[in-house]
Amino acid sequence: MEQNLKRLLILLGLLIFSPLVLNIAFKALRIFKDYPKVFLAYILLIAGILLTLYSVYYGFRTFKGIVDTLFKE
After folding, report:
1. Sign of the C-alpha dihedral, residues 57, 21, 23, 42?
2. Tens digit of pLDDT for each residue in 15-55?
3. How far is the C-alpha of 6 from the C-alpha of 2, rounded, in Å?
4. Cβ atoms within 10 A of the Cβ of 25, count?
5. CA 33, CA 23: separation in Å to the nearest integer?
6. 58 CB-side CA count, 13 A
7. SS3 state at 68
8. What is the pLDDT of residues 45-62, one digit of tens each?
9. Is the pLDDT of residue 73 over 70?
């Protein structure tokens, strides 16, 4: 149960952090127009998308672990 609580706290951090990264990336794309800065904005956008997808996967894995622990036979 302690491991599930740790996973739940990590998931909470991911669910807060990943939309922030996406928001910063979209704002950077809107503001930056020259080459080196726009490249950084695209890197942030890709990182934000990957982080969001990983958050969804980690959420399913976390809740599966919690359900398995609660209904352990």
Report:
1. negative
2. 999 999 999 999 999 999 999 999 999 999 999 999 999 99
3. 6
4. 20
5. 17
6. 18
7. helix
8. 999 999 999 999 999 999
9. no
Record the tokens describing residue 6, joined without a space: 């740790």
Q: At what angle do helices 35-70 and 2-31 cross, to 10 degrees?
A: 160
Residues in the chain: 73
DSSP string of 5-67?
Answer: HHHHHHHHHHHHHHHHHHHHHHHHHHH--SHHHHHHHHHHHHHHHHHHHHHHHHHHHHHHHHH
Q: Both tokens of residue 22? A: 């996406």
| Amino acid (1-letter code) at residue 8 | L
